[in-house]
Amino acid sequence: MTIHDGVRDLEGGIKTDFSTSMDYGTYLDLDTLLSAQSPVSRPEHHDELLFIIQHQTTELWLKLVLHELRAVREYLDADRLTRALKTLSRVKHIQRTLAEQWSVLATLTPAEYAEFRSVLGPSSGFQSYQYRAIEFLLGNKNARMLEVFAGTPQHAELEALLHEPTVYDCFLRLLARRGYPIPDSVLQRDVAEAWVEHPELLPVLKTVYEDVDGHWDVYEACETLVDIEDAFQFWRFRHMSTVQRTIGFKRGTGGSSGVGFLKRALDLTFFPELISVRTEIEDLRD
Ligand code: HEM
Ligand SMILES: N[C@@H](CC(=O)c1ccccc1NC=O)C(=O)O
């Protein structure tokens, strides 16, 4: 029996003296983490803590996504496709958590948000360095996004990332090394530019999608990239719809038109050929 009068017994082995060893709070640096929530409203608005924690938890997960996507590029460069796939699968699970998390912020009513929105000044998620870095890694390169980071250490980091290959570049280079006829126009592209659809890639992808068993790991990688894009778009949609129900059609604090600006992001695409190849798959008849 481990429960007495509704109380769980502490087992004899449970450690309680940490004077000479690592403990939970020290390992996780919780003093730093839990002292980093500083509401600005005066008197402090009850819901500002929700707003801050929603952003901070998102940024923590984005930190891990960034870490994993950098690893994915390294695995692809080292021809370790299976390892890259395993890592991308972790990214997908984080994306699911991030999309789900919008429901917490959706409990913030328009009236509650309006009570402290003005303290945000011109700050906005548009200035999220990690979000932009992830977009760059996935192929949505845009040098103008650097402007809001002028004079900060993140500017140099994003500038470097702008000139590095994307996850998709690394994947297609791996395919070329495996003997797939990836066109030079793709392999030699200026990686600092946003990805634009390369129709000349379609015949290569078609060979994969027409014989998935003969190209299984490549096929699986293509489908995983589609999953990642899908999840990214879902996050963007949930952001846009949460914004719409919270501020309607007000302008954004970052200076954009607001919802209209966020809606246009839904037309962006990371891996257009992986969508177009589906059009090429012939419907079979019996
Ligand atoms: C009530 C909550 C929120 C509102 C009203 C809101 C509103 C907006 C608006 C209007 C923009 C466009 C830029 C601007 O003019 O400010 C924007 C951009 C952005 N927000 Fe939010 N947001 C909210 C929550 C969040 C959260 C929780 C995150 C998570 C980190 C986030 C991340 C971003 C990002 C990354 C962008 C840039 C998007 C892009 O460039 O396409 N936002 N937000
Ligand atoms: N752009 C938002 C403000 C906002 O959401 C925000 C402000 C400061 C830090 C992060 C934010 N989140 C997303 O844009 C607005 O227009 O209300």
UniProtKB/TrEMBL annotation:
Protein function: Heme-dependent dioxygenase that catalyzes the oxidative cleavage of the L-tryptophan (L-Trp) pyrrole ring and converts L-tryptophan to N-formyl-L-kynurenine. Catalyzes the oxidative cleavage of the indole moiety.
Catalyzed chemical reaction(s): L-tryptophan + O2 = N-formyl-L-kynurenine
First-tier enzyme category under EC: oxidoreductase
GO function term, MF aspect, one: L-tryptophan 2,3-dioxygenase activity
Cofactor binding note from Swiss-Prot or TrEMBL: Binds 1 heme group per subunit.
HAMAP family from the UniProt entry: T23O
Residue ranges that the Swiss-Prot or TrEMBL entry lists as coiled coil: none
Cofactor(s) it depends on: heme
Species this chain originates from: Leucobacter triazinivorans
Protein name from the UniProt record: Tryptophan 2,3-dioxygenase
Residue ranges crossing the lipid bilayer per the database entry: none
Annotated metabolic or biological route of this protein: Amino-acid degradation; L-tryptophan degradation via kynurenine pathway; L-kynurenine from L-tryptophan: step 1/2
Protein EC: 1.13.11.11
Annotated binding of heme, by residue: 239
Subunit-structure text: Homotetramer.
GO BP of this protein: L-tryptophan catabolic process to acetyl-CoA; L-tryptophan catabolic process to kynurenine
Gene name per UniProt: kynA
Keywords, comma-separated and alphabetical: Dioxygenase, Heme, Iron, Metal-binding, Oxidoreductase, Tryptophan catabolism
Binding positions (substrate): 51-55, 113, 117, 253
Family recorded in the similarity comment: Belongs to the tryptophan 2,3-dioxygenase family.
